Amino acid sequence: MQHTISSLGELLDNAGTTWRVFDMGRRIQKIDKQTFSQIENNHIPYPFPLQQHAFLAIQFWNSHETETPYIWFLKMPLDEQSKLVQASRNHFASMVLEALGNQLTGNDEAQSQLDNNPYVFTPNANKLAAFNAIIKKELKQSASAYYEHVELYFSGKLGFNEWQQLGLQGIADFAMRLTDTNQDNLIKALDQLPQPVVNSLASTLEHSAISVALTEALYVQFENAVKQQNSENIINYLRMMSNTSATGILERAVAILVTTPTLLNLDIVLTLTGRCWHVLEDHVVALMDYLASEHDQDVFAGIFADLVAIPSLRPHMLAMIRMQNRSEALSRAIGKLFQQ
After folding, report:
1. pLDDT tens, position by position, 59-71
2. pLDDT score of 79
3. What is the CA radius of gyration of the chain?
4. Which of 15-24, 92-101, 127-136 is predicted least confidently?
5. Collapsing DSSP states into helix, strand and coil, what is residue 53?
6. What DSSP line would sit under 6-50, residue for residue?
7. For residue 107, what pLDDT is reported?
8. Strands 18-23 and 29-31
C-alpha cells in the first residue's frame, strides 16, 4: 500500500476489510458507503454535525481472521460549511498507516497505539449500550445476557416495581429487538413504568426506528406529560419518538411545544434541537424567538450556531436572518450575532 491515502474508505478497502460507518452524534444511524465517500471527498457537508464535529463509529473486520469487529470511535472536525476537514482525516489515516501498515486487523497491541490520538472519543454509557445492541442485531448475534430478564420484565410477569435488577444493556437490546410481542408488551406497559425505567428507555429507544403503532402509544404518554407540565417526561417521550417513521406524529408533538412557550425550558429546547432537528424546518423562527425572549445571548448564539450547521436547516436559519417581520427580541439577538 502506498502511504498516500485519499480516504478512510480506501484505507479500509485496501486492507481487505468489511466495514460500516455510523453517525454517533445526535443519534446512532448508519451512513451508507456512497454517502460516506461523498462526505470524505467534500462533495456534500456532513449531514449530522454536532459541536462542529462528525462523531463517527467505524466498524471493520476481516472475515478470514475473526468474526469480532474492530471499532474506531472518531471525532472529526468540520469546517464552517460542515464539510470534513480533510487535513485532520489525512492525519488520522497517516497514524493508522504508521501503527498498522496494511494489516488493520489481527494485531490488538498495534490497535491500542491508536487509543490516545486526538481524534478518538468515548461515547457515554447509554450510547455504548445502544451501539452494542445495534451491532449485535446487525451481525445476527445473540443479545446480551441481560436481555431475557428485561424482556420478561416488560411482559409484566415480574411486576413493574421490580426494576432494580434491569441492566442498561438489556434495555438497549430490548429497544433494538422490538418484535411484535415485545412491542405489544411495551405498549401495554407504558403507563405502568417507574420513572427510572422510563428514563433508561428514553436513552436507548431514541436510536431505534420505531413503528407507527408504538409512536401513537408514546404520543399518548407525551400528551399526559404536557397536561401535567412534567418536563422530565416531555423530554423522555420526545426522545423515544424522535426516530419514528411516523414523522407527522412527531411534528405534532414539536408544534405543541413551540407554540406554547410556557411549556418550554432550555432542556426541552436542547432535546428538540438535538433529537428532533429533522422536523424543525417550520419551527426554527418560533424556537429562536423564544430563546431571544427568555434566555441570554450566549444561549441564543450557541443554539443558532448548532442549527445553522445542519445542512437541512441552514437555509431556514439564513432565511430567518433576512425576515422583515421579526419580533423586536429576535431582531436584537440576531443583531448581536453580527456584532460578535
Report:
1. 998 877 666 788 9
2. 97
3. 22
4. 92-101
5. strand
6. S-HHHHHHHTT-EEEEEE-SSS-EEE-HHHHHHHHTTSS--SS-B
7. 64
8. antiparallel
Predicted local distance difference test score (pLDDT) of residue 69? 85
Q: Please report the DSSP string for 87-107 in residue order.
A: HHHHHHHHHHHHHHTT--SS-
Residue 132 sits at the vertex; the CA angle it makes with 130 and 135, to the nearest 5 degrees, is 110
Q: What are the beta bridge partners of residue 192?
A: none
**Residues in the chain, overall count:** 340
Strand boundaries in 101-239, DSSP class E: none
Phi/psi for 58 (5° steps) reads: -110, 115
CA 45/CA 208 separation, integer angstroms? 25
Lowest mean pLDDT among 92-96, 120-124, 278-282: 92-96
Backbone angles phi, psi at 238, to 5 degrees: -60, -45
CA angle 74, 45, 306 (to 5 degrees): 75
Backbone angles phi, psi at 22, to 5 degrees: -130, 145
Q: Is residue 15 pLDDT above 50, yes or no?
A: yes
> Do residues 60 and 18 lie in contact, with contact meaning Cβ atoms separated by under 8 Å?
yes
- Distance from first CA to last CA of the chain, Å, rounded? 47
pLDDT given at position 62: 83
Is 303 in contact with 273 (CB distance < 8 Å)?
Answer: yes
Burial of residue 179 (CB within 10 Å: 0-12, 13-18, 19+) is exposed
Backbone angles phi, psi at 71, to 5 degrees: -135, 130
* Cell numbers that stand for 221 in this block: 404518554
- Contact between residue 265 and residue 232 where contact means Cβ atoms under 8 Å apart: no
Three cell numbers written together for 309: 450547521
Residue 249 grid coordinates: 406524529
Answer positive or negative: Cα dihedral of 122, 106, 18, 133: negative
82: enclosing H helix or E strand = none
